[in-house]
Design goal:
The complex is a heterodimer of chains A (227) and B (228). Chain A has a single domain, classed as Vaccinia Virus protein VP39 (Rossmann fold). Helix content of chain A is 31%, strand content 31%. Chain A is built from eight helices and eleven strands. In chain A, the strands form three sheets. In chain A, strands 3-2-1-4-5-11-10 form a seven-stranded mixed beta sheet, sandwiched between helices. The longest helix of chain A has 14 residues. Chain B has eight helices and eleven strands. In chain B, the strands form three sheets. A seven-stranded mixed beta sheet of chain B has the order 3-2-1-4-5-11-10, sandwiched between helices. A two-stranded antiparallel ribbon of chain B has the order 6-7. A two-stranded antiparallel ribbon of chain B has the order 8-9. The longest helix of chain B is centred in the first third of the chain and has 12 residues. In chain B, α6 packs parallel to α8. The chains are: A alpha/beta (227), B alpha/beta (228). Chains A and B meet through α7, β7, α8 and β10 of A and β7, α8 and β10 of B. β7 of chain A pairs antiparallel with β7 of chain B.
Chain lengths: 227, 228
């Protein structure tokens, strides 16, 4: 199954997961606040690549951004349209003119693209010169490893593979909401290689510690500029 | 003790280690990755933390016009002895004795971890670069620095027992093949290096993670940054 099909199938579960207040505490408390700080102020036009059910674009719209979202899943796009303009599109073949945006974001979506490099190349193409590409991903260290004892966050964390680490498939079942995640491990240099190939320059890198395991970084945030 | 005084105390040990052909990963892992990352030879190259000078000598052989600086006088003397026509100076990386824009390339090869004030060294590297110049750094991979391989098995995992996110001191005395060096320095997470580059207004063009043929996690992270 492609990642696109997986996410389309999970759209209802994902909307419940993302929209139930307090349920996605990692997004609310750990990941999204520092990501917002990394973004430039609202400008001319903001594209949200892999917008999902639209909570991120909705928040940006409240902050003054003019947001359009794209997602490969038709059912996700229907949800997103409850928050902001959104269309079904392939991130690796965006239906926008060169330079159409001054900000492109990809919040926790690059790991879920079937063609990550193609998505970054297209993000760069639709940016104007001087525009920014900001993304958040699962940190490659965290994605590559696991606690020796899952219930002991202070115990050893083991990395058995990095360049070819297996995708971690896991299911969250809480408060009557069941959601299955496929966490791909993409090495830092593979993300950076996609940014480099797209002709973007990295201005800022942030590592967001895990709340449960504060000694380890859970998310990686990057801001890049199109020269 | 400052790390510059520590490396002064290790100067002879380090020169013997560094000059034994094939002895360490410079010869087959970090060195080739550095030379692949560099822009072609230009006007003037600064080797920041040149040590006994092997990187500077190899750069000169590739056509780069190199000045080396190091805070440890004995290392500078050893570099000069191995390259009598070369320019090597004792200097503090955080207060470089060069004008703004003196270089089009600054190299910090496995030295940013051993400098007492890393952010100041990055700021000074940016200052002495001309607009359009590059800083190329090789560092111990922050992920690798956070853990250890606890068995000799080929598939041994990297085990992280302590912190990745904090700035920490590392100390490891390694004896191998008749050579011994006491390695001392700082271990930083990636974002502390990146913050130093950001604060120095450098833009990162490339990250490289050359694979370690024997272990899952890369030993080195290479960064090429542009002064816009």
């Amino acid at each position: 199954m492609s990642l696109r099909e997986h996410w389309d199938e999970q759209a209802e579960s994902w909307a419940a997961f993302a929209r139930t207040p307090g349920h996605d505490f990692s997004h609310e408390q750990t990941n999204f606040p520092p990501f917002l700080e990394l973004l430039p102020p609202a400008g001319r036009a903001t594209l949200d690549v892999g917008c999902g059910e639209g909570r991120v674009g909705g928040e940006l719209q409240r902050l003054g951004h003019k947001v359009i979202g794209v997602d490969a899943s038709p059912r996700m796009v229907e949800f997103a349209q409850e928050h902001h303009a959104a269309i079904v599109a392939d991130a690796a073949a965006l239906p926008f003119a060169d330079g159409a945006f001054d900000l492109v974001i990809a919040y926790m979506s690059l790991m879920n693209l079937d063609d990550m490099e193609g998505g970054v190349r297209e993000a760069a193409r639709v940016l104007e010169s001087g525009g920014r590409f900001c993304f958040a991903v699962l940190h490659p260290l965290f994605a590559a490893g696991e606690l020796l004892e899952p219930e002991d966050p202070e115990g050893p964390f083991l990395i058995r593979a990095y360049f070819d680490a297996p995708t971690k498939v896991w299911t969250s079942e809480r408060e009557g909401i069941t959601m299955t995640f496929h966490d791909r491990c993409i090495p830092l240099s593979v993300y950076a290689g996609a940014v480099e190939s797209a002709g973007l320059l990295i201005e800022a890198v942030r590592e967001i510690p895990s709340r449960r395991i504060p000694r380890l970084p859970l998310y990686l945030h990057v801001r890049a500029v199109k020269p | 003790m400052t790390y510059s005084r520590h490396w002064e105390s290790q100067a002879e040990n380090w020169a013997a280690w560094a000059r034994a052909p094939g002895h360490d990963s410079y010869w087959h892992e970090s060195g080739p990755a550095l030379f692949e990352l560099l822009p072609p030879p230009g006007r003037a190259t600064l080797d920041l933390g040149c040590g006994e000078g092997r990187v500077a000598r190899d750069l000169k052989a590739r056509g780069y016009d190199v000045v080396g600086i190091d805070a440890a006088p004995t290392l500078v003397r050893l570099a000069l002895e191995a390259d009598p026509g070369g320019e090597y100076r004792v200097a503090d990386a955080a207060a470089l004795p060069f004008e703004d824009g003196s270089f089009d390339l600054v190299i910090a090869f496995n030295s940013l971890m051993d400098i007492d004030d890393m952010p100041a060294a990055v700021r000074e590297a940016a200052r002495v670069l001309e607009v359009g110049g590059r800083l190329c750094a090789c560092i111990t991979h922050p992920m690798r620095d956070a853990g250890r391989y606890e068995s000799r098995a080929a598939d041994a995992p990297l085990v992280i027992r302590g912190s990745y996110t904090d700035k920490r001191r590392f100390a490891d005395t390694v004896s191998r093949g008749g050579y011994e060096v006491a390695f001392r320095g700082w271990a930083y997470p990636l974002s502390m290096y990146a913050r130093a580059f950001e604060d120095a207004a450098l833009l990162i063009e490339a990250f490289r993670e050359p694979p370690d043929p024997d272990h899952p996690v890369p030993n080195f992270l290479l960064i090429r940054a542009l002064k816009p």
